[in-house]
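USER: Fancy drafting a protein?

ASSISTANT:
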Amino acid sequence: MTDQMQTPATILPDTTAMPVLYSFRRCPYAMRARMALLAAGIVVELREVVLRDKPAALLAASPKATVPVLILGDGTVIDQSLEIMVWALAEADPQQWLTPQSGDLDDMLVLIAQNDGPFKNHLDRYKYASRYDGADPAFHRQQAEKILNRLDGRLAVGKYLYGTRPALADYAIAPFIRQFARIDPEKFDALPFAHLQRWLHDMLQSPFFANAMTRYAQWHDGDKPVLLQATAPITSDIQPQAGW
């Protein structure tokens, strides 16, 4: 893609009404929420959470007590990552994540549900087998690879999951494929999924991913607000970079 995208207009610039996002840098659910907020140009106060030391404000905001949790200026709480993504993009969607080149939002939600359900189930039991009684990591890796094989087939047809430009499904799913790949990079690279591997590499070069992965110190009550916002104008170009 070569079209230059303008920096999205900031939503809710008044800090008194600014949304608050509780997040954890390495959580794939939080990653995708942050990317959608950046894509929509919505500036939020970011509160980086250490999962073993969750702040009382997070626990009070959401009974599920896991990130991400977004608190809007009017006090509304959105504590599901996909709902945060769709809310943000409904506010502003300059990259057209909700309107893919092929298919539609409902189609993408079906594919995302496969990721969030069966794939995540196998991913957890592969990566964290000791947490699940009787889990066989080799079996769950094999089952996860069957799902990856189907994604590879989709990506053999189009550069991205729903056409020649990335959309909601790409950004919602990529953090979980990244997590799978990082468990054993050599095994992942050896899989016969060239299209998937190319796609993941491209997604990790996305400026949205780079901005979303900025490191922040743990938030404590009373800290000066830290804003999640683009550190530079974001374009639609995805360029290879060294060191990823």
Remarks:
- The first helix runs from residue 28 to 40.
- Residues 149 and 192 are 8 Å apart (CA to CA).
